[in-house]
Amino acid sequence: MATATARTPQRPHFQLPKLPYAEDALAPVISAETLALHHGKHHRKYVDTMNQLLEKEPVHGAQTLEDVVRRASGKLFNNAAQAWNHDFYWKSLRPKGGGEPPAALKQWIETSFITVDACKKELAQAATKQFGSGWAWLVQEHGKLKVVGTGNAENPLAKGATPLLTIDVWEHAYYLDHQNRRVDYVNGVLDKLINWGFAADNLG
Ligand code: FE
User: Fold this and answer.
1) Ligand 1 center to residue 170 CA distance, Å?
2) Can you tell me the distance from the alpha carbon of 30 to that of 150, in angstroms, rounded to the nearest whole number?
3) Cα 126 from Cα 170, distance rounded (Å)
4) How many angstroms is it from 135 CA to the middle of ligand 1?
5) Residue 8 carries which DSSP code?
6) Would you say 2 and 90 are in contact if contact means Cβ atoms under 8 Å apart?
7) Rounded mean pLDDT of 39-43?
8) If you measure from the C-alpha of residue 118 to the centroid of ligand 1, how many angstroms do you get, rounded to a whole number?
9) What residue ranges define each of the domains in the chain, with the CATH number in brackets?
């Protein structure tokens, strides 16, 4: 799953994927100013740095962004994973999101967490308790759903789980809009922006 595409088979070169909505579409939880910086500067920098590193040391056999994330290490892993994580994060949000998950996903959630609210609560806890920079994820692994938090660029893809949705909890994701109140950003995302339909599409 990535909209970034390889330009040549031998030496992959990735494009910054477009945002799936307008920059002002997620306000007031996430302002147009935050989205412009987060997508146009932060995400772009990860993609550009990954491309520069790939020019110098291609990853053998890696064609897709997922291949690079799974096989790279060090600085290349950090930039490739951040490129992938951000693409996944934009799709994990939508204008007028939140609400009820689609039936198939709701069944999975109720099997794993009992209620949708309990699942949201676990996601909120993982997102607010993540120390420093990182991500909160809903994943599918070993026949059930669970919530995991990862630090910096780490993601469940690299660990073999199937990510369903994610929330970016790096300060650049919320500081302009909520300053130090990460909890306000996280609750706003879960109540008003989370894209349960995208998570349902990712079920294996
Ligand atoms: Fe970010």
Assistant:
1) 6
2) 22
3) 13
4) 9
5) S
6) no
7) 98
8) 26
9) 32-91 (1.10.287.990), 103-201 (3.55.40.20)
pTM value is 0.93
Say how many Å lie between the CA of residue 114 and the centre of ligand 1: 30
Per-residue pLDDT at 58 = 84
> Would you give the distance in Å from CA 168 to the centre of its chain?
6
Q: What is the pLDDT of residues 58-108, one digit of tens each?
A: 888 888 999 999 999 999 999 999 999 999 999 999 999 999 999 999 999
Say how many Å lie between the CA of residue 76 and the centre of ligand 1: 17
For residue 76 the two structure tokens come to: 């290349």
Instruction: Of 52, 55, 56, 84, give the one whose Cα is nearest residue 68.
Output: 84
Which two three-digit tokens encode residue 82? Answer: 């951040």
Task: Calculate how far, in angstroms, residue 34's C-alpha sits from the geometric centre of ligand 1.
Answer: 10
CB atoms within 10 A of CB 126: 22
Beta bridge partners of 125: none
Of 88, 99, 95, 97, which Cα lies nearest the Cα of 26?
95
**The residue to which tokens 């692994």 are assigned:** 141
